[in-house]
Prior knowledge:
The complex is a heterodimer of chains A (413) and B (135).
Chain A: H1 5-11, H2 17-33, E1 38-40, E2 43-46, H3 50-66, E3 74-77, H4 94-109, H5 120-123, E4 134-135, H6 138-148, H7 157-166, E5 168-170, E6 184-189, H8 195-208, E7 216-219, H9 227-241, E8 247-248, H10 258-262, E9 270-274, H11 275-283, E10 294-297, H12 304-314, E11 324-329, H13 331-339, H14 342-348, E12 352-355, H15 365-372, E13 376-379, H16 382-387, E14 394-397, H17 400-409
Parallel strand pairs in A: 2-3, 2-4, 6-7, 6-9, 7-8, 10-11, 10-13, 11-12, 13-14
Antiparallel strand pairs in A: 1-5
Helix pairs in contact in A: 2-7, 3-4, 6-9, 8-9, 8-11, 12-14
Chain B: E1 2-4, E2 7-9, E3 13-19, E4 30-31, E5 36-37, E6 52-56, H1 65-74, E7 81-84, H2 89-98, E8 101-104, H3 110-113, E9 119-123, E10 128-133
Parallel strand pairs in B: 3-6, 6-7, 7-8
Antiparallel strand pairs in B: 1-10, 2-8, 3-9, 4-5, 9-10
Helix pairs in contact in B: 1-2
Amino acid sequence: MDLSAEERAMLAGARGEAVRRAIAYQIEVGDFWGARRFVPVTNVHMMGDIEVMGDGGLQFLREEVSLGARCAVATTTNARCIDFAHCRRLGQDEIEAGKEKELIACLQQMNVITTDTCINYQTVYQPHLGEHVAWGDTGTVIYANSVFGARSNFESGPAALAAGLTGRTPEYGFHLDEHRRGSFTVRLDAALDDLADWGAVGKLVGEAHQNYFAVPVFHGYRGTPTADELKHLGAALASYGSMGMFHFVGVTPEAPTIEAAMGGKAAAESVVIKESDIESVYAGYGLGDGDARLVVFSGPQQSLLEMKRLAELFDGRRVKDGSSCFVTTNGAVLAQARKLGYAGKLEDAGVTLLEGVCFYILQNLSPMRIANGWSNMVSNSAKIVNIIGAHRFNTILRRTAECVEIACSGVLR
Amino acid sequence: MAIRVERAFGPAVEGEALVSEEGFSPRYDLDRWTGVITKPGHKLEGASIKDKVCFFPTAKGGIAAGWAFYDIKWKKIAPKAFIFGVTNPVMVQGAVFAGITITEGWNPRAPEVVKSGDWVRVDPSRRTIELLRGA
């Protein structure tokens, strides 16, 4: 990679050992992808919690703190694995909770803003067209690239932290025009009335095109997608397809037309998503032993508008005895949902509200599943039903109102 | 018989091949305490990746994988190398951070010439994978 004088100085240790290590690591990653140089970033979003990092990751952070590591640009954190207010009731490990507290303190000493949210793009920072950022999780990246027209690769925890320390990231992938052009088109010939329908589109398109550099171009939709709909679409595309970007003609900033989104390239394929395709997604989930005692609204965390809708659907109802229903969101949304009465309605219905976490990465999730005897997990998030398999859940995607009905009736259809 | 790879990082390693027809995520598919692939229905369900040279056609998801490679290396259940047909930045960032050999792109397509149980050598500096002996 061609390094600037400042970058060469970093590599020589002029800004300390933590920065030297960070930029040396970034150069290795950049070399792998053939990056020619670094680009400065204005904002970093990183994943870092004890469930994903483990003891080795915590030890790494301790070393970083001892080396005086401090992020040079605004760096926020993704959803984490423990909501301390619910830790004991969920049967989470007290030793791990102690480590999580130490980990959070380490990050804060490194000038990291522990926002603990995977919906930073809805609640914390909205980059502009062409702005280079270094974000993770995948749902944040695909939203940044697609809806804002900002530029980020999937930046995993160590890579995002390195970007925070050096204030830059290797220029490859979605930082470059050549990778931002559409590669195939998808005509949406379906109503897509529920968030889960948008996730189902992401599943259909993502599963069939598993490639980070595949960029679908959606067109033909007869309505205007909302931010939450695009969030579920993007999260599912990133999850099933490992995709980092999509275009939506007339909606996303780099797609005024199909031709503009394709950047002069011919589409490798033209896909059509029909109503029957969406229905076949729902029909494709086996109901296992019929267990309907776990319903989850998480992955991504709920926006304020999603909280409002759930509060309306649960109003005056109760989660069935013996069943559990979890909603995850971030601190900012939860505070506002409390003020507006949404949180109260949900709690009155017996819903557990978890703050700053994602259900998928909850510490101790496999033992929690066993202790509760859960076999199925029902959700309106296509993303979470895809990613939680290693914990041996049988997962089922259902529309939002159906999920609420299952939570309250204990009957799975 | 040698396979050419397009991109590579890490030290040269030798080991037993574990060849998958399905993509991989250390988060979605792997029990990170035992090193065994546990996702129900995964084509390698029940197989351990520990000390193997793992061949996967694609990478799945997921940002959390970046720390997961370091975590499994720390727990001494990491594979010797990850050989991907197509990968994504997270896998590369994670493998580089953990010091695990990783490659992307294969010619010919690795599953056509290597099967699970074969003994292979991965040389990132020469961008080659050699089949040393069959299972």
